[in-house]
TrEMBL record:
<dbReference type="InterPro" id="IPR015422">
    <property type="entry name" value="PyrdxlP-dep_Trfase_small"/>
</dbReference>
<keyword id="KW-0032">Aminotransferase</keyword>
<dbReference type="GO" id="GO:0008483">
    <property type="term" value="F:transaminase activity"/>
</dbReference>
<dbReference type="InterPro" id="IPR015421">
    <property type="entry name" value="PyrdxlP-dep_Trfase_major"/>
</dbReference>
<keyword id="KW-0663">Pyridoxal phosphate</keyword>
<protein>
    <submittedName>
        <fullName>Aminotransferase class V-fold PLP-dependent enzyme</fullName>
    </submittedName>
</protein>
<feature type="domain" description="Aminotransferase class V">
    <location>
        <begin position="47"/>
        <end position="354"/>
    </location>
</feature>
<dbReference type="InterPro" id="IPR015424">
    <property type="entry name" value="PyrdxlP-dep_Trfase"/>
</dbReference>
<dbReference type="Pfam" id="PF00266">
    <property type="entry name" value="Aminotran_5"/>
</dbReference>
<dbReference type="InterPro" id="IPR000192">
    <property type="entry name" value="Aminotrans_V_dom"/>
</dbReference>
<keyword id="KW-0808">Transferase</keyword>
Length: 371
């Protein structure tokens, strides 16, 4: 399937050089239609419709399980990754030694830093895997928490490395944020070595805000004792108090059928479009963008020349270059001391070529193009 044909489903790319999926993914016309029908059904059907929607929400676990490679009973639904992680950490013993990455996403590091864990940090650079392994070799670490794809520059932790350290340190609990990863790359959770994978759906899953997920390995269920609970944890069964699986600790109250229906709809669309095709398409875009931006002297070669990288690039430039790009209809973000550009299935090589021409036309004082 030629993914360029999908551009017509995303009106934003018709009037903007959109390179900002790392901030928020676009809504498709098809998802808008589904959401309108959902709310019309609620308007007409009232409580009957909402009661029926509970079955639909349960089915979201089946969709995510198929897409991400995990049994539905080990999948929790949550409004966002941050809330889910904070809930999980309330069930992690405080005597655990935690290894984090320097400058990782705040919603990964801050929940650990705000609690009484003993913390150690690995340097986050092009040698991040080696840096992690050195810490694991030299210190007693119980938990490694990290983003699979880094939010500022797209650095992606090697999947083979994660499997390797799981083999070397079988008692190590791996907690991963997949928000900047899932939806852009093919993935099988049960084969990954990761114990807990969480994410929000509003970026690469193109699902809008208010929906997220958390996947658990069988082993994770033995390490965690969350205290959160509520009537929704037992699906409204008064007799089942305290008798429910780990994932339901993250679902103490009702879940929004519009938000999670959007997640279900969008993930099914990604499966229809085939995640392998999406990954191949995105790799072509990233290869072109990396080549062009490197030629302009705008990229950190050490990061982008790694074997694995996400769909995010951070080019050199300050406020003036960012304003110049914005004034030329390029939608992007300022992150990590530079300008973050990210590309997904609705982007094309033409988008990248036009951005390159805009960068070339920028006054030399705005960018390190000749450096």
């Amino acid at each position: 399937m030629n993914l360029n044909s999908l551009r017509k489903s995303f009106p934003v790319v018709k009037h903007s050089l959109f390179a900002n999926t790392a901030a928020i993914g676009l809504m498709s016309e098809e998802l808008l239609e589904w959401r309108q029908e959902h709310d019309l059904d609620f308007l007409i059907g009232g409580s009957d419709m909402k009661m029926e929607s509970f079955q639909m929400i349960s089915g979201v676990r089946d969709t995510l399980g198929k897409f991400l490679g995990c049994d539905r009973n080990r999948i929790a639904l949550s409004p966002n990754f941050s809330l889910a992680l904070n809930t999980v950490l309330e069930g992690l013993p405080k005597d655990n030694n935690i290894l984090l990455l320097e400058t990782d996403y705040p919603s990964v590091n801050w929940p650990f830093e705000s609690r009484e864990f003993k913390l150690t940090y690995a340097k986050l650079d092009e040698n991040v895997e080696r840096n992690i392994e050195e810490k694991l070799n030299n210190e007693k670490i119980d938990v490694l928490a990290f983003s699979i794809v880094q939010w500022q520059n797209g650095l992606r932790i090697s999947g083979d490395f994660l499997k390797y350290i799981k083999e070397q340190y079988p008692d190590l609990l791996l907690i991963a944020d997949g928000t900047q990863f899932c939806g852009a790359f093919e993935f099988n959770f049960d084969d990954s070595g990761i114990d807990i994978l969480g994410g929000s759906g509003y970026k690469w899953l193109l699902s809008g805000t208010g929906n997220g997920y958390m996947l658990f390995s069988e082993r994770a269920t033995d390490r965690l004792r969350p205290k959160s609970t509520g009537f929704n944890s037992v699906n409204g069964n008064l007799e089942a108090k305290g008798e429910f699986r780990l994932a339901k600790h993250l679902e103490p109250g009702h879940l929004d059928s519009l938000c999670f229906g959007s997640l279900d709809f969008s993930v099914k669309k990604l499966m229809d479009w085939d995640i392998k095709n999406i990954e191949k398409h995105n790799k072509g875009l990233m290869d072109l963008a990396s080549q062009e931006f490197l030629a302009l002297g705008l990229l950190n070669e050490g990061v982008v020349n790694r074997k694995t990288h996400g769909n995010i690039l951070n080019i050199r430039g300050g406020d003036e270059l960012y304003l110049y790009l914005s004034n030329n209809n390029v939608c992007c973000s300022q992150r990590g001391g530079g300008i973050r550009l990210s590309f997904h299935l609705y982007n094309s090589e033409s988008d990248i070529n036009r951005i390159v021409e805009i960068l070339k036309s920028a006054p030399s004082s705005l960018a390190s193009i000749k450096n």
